[in-house]
Amino acid sequence: MSSPSPPPPPSPSSSSGTNLPSRILILYASETGNAQDTAERTAREIRRRKGRCLVQSMVEFDIQQLPHTPLLILINSTHGRGQPPPDMVNLWSALLRSGLPSDILEDVHFAIYGLGDSSYEKFCYAGKILARRMISLGARLLTAPASASAGGSVNGTTRADGSQALDERFGRGLYISGQERREQQEDDIDGDEFGETACLAWGDERAPEGLEETYLPWLEKTMTAMLPLLHPPPPLNPPPAPITALPAPLYRLSPVSRAAPLPAPPTAVERNGTLDLGPAGGGGGGERKRVAQSLAEGDDVLQPGWVWTRLAVNKRVTDDGWFQDVREICLELEQAMEYAPGSICSLKPQTSEEEIQAFLHMNKLENEADQPFIIQPLDTDFLAEIPLLTVNGMGGLGGEEDQEVPLHLPRGKPTTLRRILRDHVDVRQPPRKSFFEWMARFTTSELERERLEEFLADSVHPGEIQLLVGLVEYKTNLKIKRKGLLSSWLQDLPQGYRIPTGVDAPTLFLPPQSANVPVILVGPGTGVAPMRAFAEERIRQGQGKNTAIYFGCRSRQHDFYYADEWEAMRKAGVTVRIAFSRDQDEKLYVQDLIKEDAKMIKEWIYDHHGNIYISGSSNAMPKQVRSAVAWSISDESGVGDITREEADKYVEDMFMSGTRGGEESW
Ligand SMILES: Cc1cc2nc3c(=O)[nH]c(=O)nc-3n(C[C@H](O)[C@H](O)[C@H](O)COP(=O)(O)O)c2cc1C
């Protein structure tokens, strides 16, 4: 499919010349934190490259500002059966209002990353419908590389003349037409038609490399497309800070009292009136009391819109001998609250005291654990060393807003480390990649840092070079036995021996120009080693299903290299074909398997201009592989439409020109 033409950049502006996008807005909607983590990671990358950005939950976003948001990154997950996370619902409902003009978002340039799990029927559906709706309202999906020249600005004339009218239209009463909703829901959206360069990607938790597989390429495209549109664009020189450099802080922990630490925080039961705050010592006086009161009230625990309930019934309803402990729970509301059958009730759990204590002890933080502080946003203007512009009509993206404290943490209320651990974070959560990134930034041990960096590295076998070396043995013309210098030397080396090693850039095995060009890898014998590396890289790029590998060996028992890896490769979508030449009466070689797969070979090589890579013996094998490919794409196989002669020429041209994958994609 062909890609759409790239959207125009935010254009040089109006007479006022003031509507220049100086910040990127990242909006996320997350249920269990992955999308939020991805949004924050994206923000760190923008800031590392000296761009400005603001991260906000969709639930907090003022929808009326959407048409005035020139540079937007959307990151959201999918829940339920293809539903948006609750935090996206308001924005989504507003976007579905009937009668919205089809150009209402024409000034918005956006990138989108959806998170999901392909084992669900509606994979990343919330992200897909969001992308589709944004486009249908005139928003422009960015493509990389940006065709924009740096320093563009948004069409101020449109905004200056039309912003109020747009606000009114967005502010009108909520009415979603059934037809419109159906169209949104029933559309079969996969997003592929936007082309490979579009800044749109769907993250799959099931993928072998998890979300990383699509996130990293998407991030790179989005950075390339969006950063030059900032005004002024981030400087290319000096280069961005190293990925493991500690970024500037976004928040300050301001102590609220210099007095002695408060007693241990109240539990939910204590909060109900039995808490003894102890003597107000240390001269903290009124302030200390006020803080203690706030903590006792649990001000820092309740999220906006939440209420306190009291546990009235907690009864086991399964028999003692039954394998599962099921509870009937009744909560009494302390404040009136409306709900209907089908409403979703969320409860905020607490980390156990033992776990908190273990955490504090391990990190030597026991002395600080009960010191009250307030988390405050820092002035983030210093994050990018770029002069800030005064921007009109930018919905707070011009620099007047700092990065707000994330919603899951207490905002503007006194809290303590112990309470953060108890009420606001999940110390049992398996660590995400970003956690290791932070560890690498904070560790003071060189060895630990090296290990973490290897772990984070973007390569399949970080910190290793894997080789498959066959011992070279031969007889000279005078029948004298000889061994190859390197291979025989390696044979007897003890583990731990230091070897001078060099690495040069690839010259023969160049990847196709676009990752989604199909690739066929043929590697009999030890020739399989580079093909295995190639296949692993293709899987990492999310192109497993566009990759086939043909491996040939003598027998399953004697020389079946990487025997325990092929199944995993198959599971990652790769077509793995193995020819054991001596395991049956009739000899079977890679070229025979290629012929068996004539239909696929013809589609990949002839119809979709795929690449073939061959490695291994330089004797008859490469020629026989070429011949098998030509046969497969010709009318001789019954699959192709061209004559054998034409097919031979086609394949010969491929090999002579060393063509690296056609421009066309699937
Ligand atoms: C109850 C539940 C339902 C889900 N439903 C879907 C779904 O319909 N489609 C999908 O692609 N992913 C689905 N997922 C996977 C999530 O989108 C995925 O775990 C994502 O990383 C969560 O991101 P978040 O932590 O930001 O909410 C579901 C996950 C859960 C726990």
From TrEMBL:
Highest taxon above the source species: Eukaryota
Protein name according to UniProt: Uncharacterized protein
Species of the source: Naganishia friedmannii
